């Protein structure tokens, strides 16, 4: 994980929305416990379909919510 501008903006938006957050390592043998995964970069937030053969069912509603939070974030402070 690289902590870039997009992650910083999203973390800021989550904090302003009073949404708790944490960063933890996720082992490959534990990804089955997750229904969705996302990648963040300068183009925004993308759904990850699979990691090493594990296919995620996805969570379109949560992804849309994250994208809306990011879209509402001001880019000027950076």
General description of the model:
The chain has 78 residues and is an alpha+beta fold. The chain has one domain. 31% of the residues lie in helices and 15% in strands. The strands form two sheets. It has a two-stranded antiparallel sheet with strand order 1-2. A two-stranded antiparallel ribbon has the order 3-4. A hairpin with a 2-residue loop joins strand 1 and strand 2 (44-47). It is globular, with a radius of gyration of 13 Å. It starts with a helix and ends in a 7-residue tail after the last helix. The relative contact order is 0.22. The mean pLDDT is 89.
Furnish the topology, listing elements before pairings.
Blueprint: H1 5-16, E1 38-41, E2 44-47, E3 50-51, E4 54-55, H2 60-71
Antiparallel strand pairs: 1-2, 3-4
Jot down its keywords.
78 residues, alpha+beta, 15% strand
Low-confidence stretches: none
**Strands, count:** 4
Which strands sit side by side, in order, in the main sheet?
1-2
Radius of gyration over all CA atoms, rounded:
13 Å
Strand content: 15-25%
Given helix and strand content, the structural type is alpha+beta
**Main sheet?**
2 strands, antiparallel
Helix share, percent: 25-40%
Query: For the residues shown, what is the average pLDDT?
Result: 89
Q: Can you tell me the number of structural domains?
A: 1
Helices and strands, in order, run as: HEEEEH
Quote the distance from N terminus to C terminus. Answer: 20 Å
């Amino acid at each position: 994980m690289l902590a870039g501008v997009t992650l910083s903006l999203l973390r800021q938006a989550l904090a302003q929305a009073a949404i708790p957050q944490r960063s933890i390592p996720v082992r490959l043998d534990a990804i089955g416990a997750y229904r969705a995964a996302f990648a963040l970069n300068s183009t925004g937030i993308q759904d990850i379909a699979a990691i090493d053969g594990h296919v995620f069912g996805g969570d379109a509603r949560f992804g849309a919510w994250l994208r809306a939070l990011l879209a509402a974030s001001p880019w000027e402070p950076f």
